[in-house]
Amino acid sequence: MKWLRFEQIEELREAVRKELKKLTKEIIASLTGWEFMLDALSVARL
Known about the structure:
Elements: H1 9-21, H2 25-32, H3 35-43
């Protein structure tokens, strides 16, 4: 999205919402399931 320009913040928010809706559980897991991230979340008690 870095190549897009938005006149209003709400346009940016809507574009981000649309992109986030495209993410499946599998994609999210592949991005966030890294061992070091899980360890950090565990230490932070999140």
